[in-house]
Structure formats: structure tokens, C-alpha cells
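Ligand: aspartic acid. Inputs:
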Amino acid sequence: MPVLVMKFGGTSVATLDRIRRAAKRVGVEVAKGYDVIVIVSAMSGETNKLVGYVEETSPLFDAREYDAVVSSGENVTAGLMALTLQEMDVPARSWQGWQVPLETTSAHSSARIVNIPTDNINRKFGEGMRVAVVAGFQGISPEGRITTLGRGGSDTTAVAFAAAFGAERCDIYTDVDGVYTTDPRICDKARKLDKIAFEEMLELASLGAKVLQTRSVELAMRYKVKLRVLSSFEEQSDEAGTLVCDEEEIMELNVVSGVAHSRDEAKMTLISVADRPGIAAAIFSPLSEAGVNVDMIVQNISEDGRTDMTFSCPTNQVARAEQALKAAQDAGSINFHDLVADTDVCKISVVGIGMRSHTGVAAKMFKVLSNEGINIKVITTSEIKISVLVDRKYMELAVQALHTAFELDKAA
Ligand code: ASP
Ligand code: MG
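Predicted complex:
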């Protein structure tokens, strides 16, 4: 029988009532003839609570025990979902990660999936079980310890199961009804997309659209898993939600499909560093060792053998970046006149596969911002994305203006 993977996020299993509602939806797919693999998150708020317990007990916790504790929320919802299905006379049982076994690396709290053997679950399907309810977010290391896949990891569990079982589709049930052209809280003209290409979704996810864990999109792209994002709170038709798919499946590619923003950016500039071979390595190696997540990098023109170097990083890493750079200055590996941090910026990006074949997208973006009197501080581009840093007070204005200019507004 064809296999379908259905993943329910924390808000979709937050109460027994909601678990019943989700189970009903599973029952509909079973009635259509699918064998279903259900992946569940923990009840919403549960994982945060468990992380809090760990941190309060042991600030410098043993990551293996962290995983033992924070993976437990999913065990509860997996068992409850299986019980609920059984109450509806749907043959179901639950599986914890280690029982599958979902094999991962030993990188506790951010483990990667290595292998998902299908024989155990397939044998049960062969014996008449119709639904395998699997606890998301967790697996087992080569050492036999419980691991977790990083926050939001159940999305990745779901896609990995869809790939391993050759599922027809992977439906991600969440509290929004799909992927939007931009954040509807910032722009009331935001429109739900019917389809979005993997690469665009990947850019949007890494730019801070929180619908899907970035790694789940990477995995779906690699294994060509058809991913659908939809709400568990609305009546569903087969066209509901947003399909994340191969670009070939999208008839008309938009030049720009979405406008993303990230509030949490800081711009740091090293003023007057020696412009010599190795200087970028001398600056960015200590930053990377300190765990600073550098995003944009600009080296300015050089005069008299000295140059300014600007980069961006998350606001909460500014102190760490300053510390690392000052230490490098003290050790003599770099020499700058000043280090200036601007924490009042945000990043605005336009994303679209159509950019590959259309010229003038950057020019148009800059013109729109200039018409609004918004000054651009840093620019970077990739094949399908243009990002700028601007003052944070312009965030809403910039998103709204770009959304309109690139014809993304919903029909009035
Ligand atoms: N429960 C985990 C978390 O909150 C994993 C997930 O829900 O995807 O991050
Ligand atoms: Mg999630």
C-alpha cells in the first residue's frame, strides 16, 4: 500500500482534544488506503519546560542526559496518539526513535540522521498495522545513547521517514495554513503560496521563516520528497496548504517569491586593518572558533595599505565577537584602529528562483528602498537572493514596499 507521512507539530497535539482531531485526520488517510507513518512533536511548551529543568539542575549539563530528558516529550504524545487511534479502531502502535531504530551520529542535541531501517515497521504494516506513530526529534547513537536532532527536529524526522519509506508525500501539520510571501504579522497583504520551490524554501527557512527546520528542507530537496505544509486547524482539501516541491513542478516561476526579514542582526566594522594576504583568515578564524555565526561580509576599498572590514552576525553574539577580536588584537594577529558595533539593524531579503533568468531585480530593490528614503548599509547576493542591512526602524516599511513592488500583494 502507498505510504504517507503525516507530521503533527506541538500546537497540533497540545491537548487530548487536539490529538483526537489529528487522529481523525489520520483516519481519513487510512480510509483512502494509505499506510500512514505519523511523526509527533511534544505538546507545545513541553520541550522548553524540559530544557528549563535541565539547565536549572546542571548549568554545564552532560549533553547525553540533556537528550535523555528533552526527548521525553515526544514519547508521551506518540503513546497518546497510538491510544487515540486504537480507540477509533485504527490498528496503530507507537515507536520511540531507538526502537525503529533511527540511527544518528553521536553529536548530542544536534545529531544527524545516519540511517532508518524500514524492516521493523514494514513487517508490522504487513501484519495489518495501519499507522506507525513515531516520536519525532529523537534517535540513537552508535554508543546506544538517546540523541536529539536540534530544536524543530521533528520536521527532519518526518522528511527522513518519507525518504526512507518512499512515501507519496510528507504532510507537515502546523498552526499556520502554509508558507506565505512574507510574514503576515508585518504585512497584511501577505499571500499564501500554493507552491514554492525547495531552493526558495531553503533560503526562506534559513532567513528566519520558522515554518520548517532548515535541515528538513535540505533533506527533502536531496531526496525529492514532496513536502506539504498545512494547518491542522482548518478543514482540508487536497489542495490545502503549500506544496514545497521541485521547481519543474511550478508552472510559472515568480521572479521574486518571498520577502524575508530578520530582526536579530548586528553589523560590526573593524576600522583600518592592515590590507595584506591572510587578513581575512586572521579575522574570521577566531570568530569561527568563538562560535560566532558570521553572515554577510564586506571588505571595503583599501587606502595606504589599510582597509575596513564589515560583517554581520546575530545580535546576541556581538559580545562574543568583540571578545574574540580583541583577544586576536592583543595576541598581535590582527591590528585595527577601532571596532564599531551597530545593533540597530535588520536584514531584508528578496528570494526567488526567477532571479536566475531575470535581470534588474537588485536595481529594482534598491530603487524601492531609496524611494522610501531607506539607506542601505550592507548588500549581499546569491543566485536566488538579495539581502540588505538597513536600520531596524525601517523593517516594516521596507518589507511592505518590496512586497508591493514585486507584485506579491494578495488580490484586494
Ligand atoms: N519538540 C522539539 C522542539 O520543540 C522538536 C520539534 O517539535 O520539532 O524543538
Ligand atoms: Mg516546529
